[in-house]
Write a structure and sequence with these properties.
The protein is built from 33 helices and 17 strands. The chain is of the alpha/beta class. The strands form three sheets. Strands 7-6-8-9-10-11 form a six-stranded parallel beta sheet, with helices on both faces. Strands 14-13-12-15-16-17 form a six-stranded parallel beta sheet, with helices on both faces. The longest helix is centred in the C-terminal third of the chain and has 20 residues, at 567-586.
């Protein structure tokens, strides 16, 4: 007796189905049907047709978690059917004993494939005719485990008919050992790349394959399957989507995708096609996805390196070949030059940001009390309409692509014009969404000043900002300026704004407090919330100095990085915790956590470290130096060897090339209390004399009032 289990997501055509049931019964088969469609209206007819079992599968996910329901809403129909059915006890029990498992419609295919992985002796099919042939074959010979057919057979089956494709794919993907095998991977790639397959079917099949690969731990294999299928799809939108999924398969696991360039090029090709047709909305979405993928934080921020470190200009070169990107980057300029500072009244200065005002405290304090300035502060995030337009990236791109005639520009004009009409000068901190938003409109005769720190260089925002409408662009360090100007072509054109390098506003004199003699043996690291801070480098240094003297400790100040940021961050954090555990247990590492009183925390730190792979200016290091802690600065690998780097920002003696050199400097400088205190005094004098607000504020006065 052969057991046949049918799965359906919608009511089967009763005439055809009942006729087929007669043929199954003639062959001595027992037939069962499970479906997610509403059975109450057809149950009697189906039962009368000769079914041995009829079962209603869950029709929704109302009893499941809200997260599962949200996931289901975003999933393809086939995935939703499986999510509804996978916990059904009747279905799982029946699937374990079935000889043939059959999908009656496309949305049931994925569920049949998954069930066949639990019962590897069952044959999995799509459609009544293949199922009937399977029953004939099984009745003439004993059931046998599904085996891998030759690649040519799979290719032939795929070409023969679309309905045969899911079964062919499923037969090659029924067990994890097969998924993990080189033969299985080659077979899958063959199945999704054979000629003559409609693009939508090819895409669907490749997604099934990719999920199977992921479950077997073959992340790169999953990405390759999607990418290989995409190469065979002529439809630009579908091709771009599949390439995007390929890249994100690896990105979601904290891996830099091998086919990143293909994925970005796929989006750019789609954007260019839509732009040429005047379809600006779809072109903007495609371009937005290209930029978001190209500047994904996993590639540039959540790992210890970035493609920009090797060849920044080469990395963005593909963008500049795109007509859509060039249309966005084209300078639009301003009709009226900015007016000169008023001589008969105070300068009206509008300082604005969105949420992050960390570096504005001293600037606001100074100009709130300055007799020559009338200051207003605007946090865009505090006003819902302004927050909405400040970060609306696709709408910004659509406005640029359409030539500046969008409703978005009208919204920016309506909401920002009152502020522009009031201000003589607008100072935008952080060159991110608000800067891109503001340059959507002509500022009139109001002067626009934008400050770019370091983070922004690794995002899409400078590529979406019209710098021809910015009068002054402020960088926090020369090496940041070098990087950004190499990335953004507009900053190398005649329409580029005036560029300045101004240190952050820091009140450093208050950091100089007495340190005990024991602080000499305490290394300190301020800020460990990002992978780029690379605290593991500091741990390496600690271990090296403790080999010579176990009195040395490492004090960690600041919040720990969050594993929720990305898989890459979570992986780094796991390694860091593993290395810290024995050191914390022995007292060699002390976590001080976040604090509102950094000067107090620094009184116990005698050596301040900068272990980062990249920085703008590293405020924590400068504050530590001002507190009279000996600075030991890693030659930030991202910028090492370039015209400007940590070596050009700090005194030469502060910077080291390796953990070995760092340990050597620490042991030499702290060899005696006298040598340590002398080095501390020199560091504090340099820090306060160079970066204290009393020095830097004069340069801001020149910027705003000069």
């Amino acid at each position: 007796m052969t057991d046949v289990l049918f799965i359906a997501s919608k009511r089967p055509a009763l005439g055809l189905f009942t006729d087929s049931l007669v043929k199954f019964r003639e062959r001595g088969a027992k037939v069962y049907l499970a479906g997610t469609f509403k059975m109450t209206s057809t149950a009697e007819e189906l039962t009368d047709a000769g079914l041995d079992g009829l079962h209603q599968l869950p029709r929704n996910l109302n009893t499941r978690s809200s997260a599962m329901r949200r996931k289901a809403r975003k999933s393809p129909a086939g995935m939703r059917v499986w999510m509804q059915s996978q916990r059904d006890r009747w279905l799982r029990q029946q699937a374990r004993t079935a000889h043939v498992i059959v999908a009656l419609d496309p949305a049931a295919v994925y569920t049949v494939w998954r069930l066949a992985q639990y019962n590897t002796t069952a044959e999995a099919h799509f459609g009544l005719a293949p199922a009937l042939r399977a029953v004939d074959r099984i009745s003439s010979e004993p059931p046998r485990p599904t085996t891998l057919p030759p690649v040519g057979v799979v290719a032939r089956d795929v070409r023969r008919s679309i309905s045969g494709l899911p079964a062919a794919v499923m037969r090659t993907a029924t067990a994890r050992p097969v998924m993990r095998s080189t033969v299985g991977a080659r077979l899958w790639r063959s199945a999704v790349t054979v000629p003559g397959m409609p693009g939508t079917v090819r895409a669907s099949a490749s997604r099934y394959v990719a999920e199977g690969m992921e479950e077997a731990g073959r992340i790169s294999g999953a990405a390759i399957a999607l990418s290989a299928a995409a190469e065979k799809i002529p439809d630009l939108a579908l091709k771009a989507q599949l390439l995007h999924e390929s890249a994100m398969t690896e990105v979601s696991k904290g891996i830099s995708p091998r086919d990143l360039g293909k994925a970005v090029d796929g989006h750019l090709a789609h954007a260019d096609d839509q732009f040429a047709k005047g379809e600006y909305a779809s072109a903007s979405v495609a371009l937005y996805r290209a930029l978001s993928l190209d500047f994904h934080r996993v590639l540039h921020i959540d790992q210890l390196s970035s493609p920009l470190a090797k060849d920044a200009e080469g990395f963005v070169a593909p963008l500049q070949k795109s007509p859509a990107y060039r249309a966005v980057a084209r300078p639009r300029g301003r009709k009226t030059p900015p007016k000169s500072p008023p001589s008969d009244r105070p300068l009206r200065l509008l300082v604005t940001t969105s949420t992050n005002a960390n570096f504005l405290q001293h600037i606001r304090t100074r100009y709130e009390d300055h007799p020559g300035v009338e200051l207003r502060f605007l946090d865009l995030a505090a006003h819902k309409p302004l927050k909405k337009i400040a970060w609306a990236a696709p709408q910004m791109l659509e406005d640029r692509l359409s030539g500046g005639t969008s409703e978005y520009q009208d919204d920016v004009e309506r909401l920002m014009r009152p502020h522009l009409d009031w201000a003589d000068t607008v100072f935008v901190d952080w060159s991110v969404g608000p800067a891109a938003m503001l340059t959507t409109i002509d500022p009139g005769d109001t002067r626009i000043v934008v400050r770019l720190h370091s983070y922004e260089a690794f995002t899409r925002w400078p590529h979406m900002t019209d710098f021809s409408r910015v009068d002054d662009l402020v960088f926090v360090a020369p090496h940041v300026k070098d990087l950004v100007t190499s990335l953004v072509p507009q900053l190398r054109e005649a329409s580029a704004p005036r560029m300045h390098v101004l240190d952050n506003a820091m009140e450093l004199k208050g950091f100089l407090r007495p340190k005990s003699a024991d602080a000499r043996f305490n290394l300190g690291l301020i800020g460990i919330s990002q992978v780029a801070k690379d605290p593991r480098w500091a741990v390496d240094v600690l271990n090296r100095v403790r080999e010579q003297d176990d009195r040395y400790r490492l004090l960690l100040v600041g919040n720990e990085m969050s594993p929720k940021t990305s898989k890459a961050t979570a992986d780094y954090l796991t390694q860091l915790r593993r290395e810290l555990k024995p050191l914390e247990e022995s007292g060699a590492v002390v976590r001080l956590g976040a604090t509102d009183d950094v000067p107090a925390a620094l009184t116990d730190i005698g050596v301040i470290l900068s272990s980062s792979v990249r920085e703008g200016c590293h405020v924590g290091l400068m504050e530590g130096a001002a507190s009279a802690a000996v600075p030991v600065v890693r030659d930030w690998p991202f910028y090492a060897g370039k015209p400007h780097s940590a070596r050009t920002l700090y005194p030469q003696g502060w910077v080291v090339d390796s953990p070995e050199e760092a340990a050597k400097r620490i042991l030499e400088v702290t060899a005696t209390e006298e040598s340590w205190r002398e080095a501390c005094e020199q560091a504090s004098a340099h820090a306060v004399g160079t970066w204290d607000w009393s020095v830097v504020q004069k340069r801001f006065d020149d910027l705003f009032l000069g």
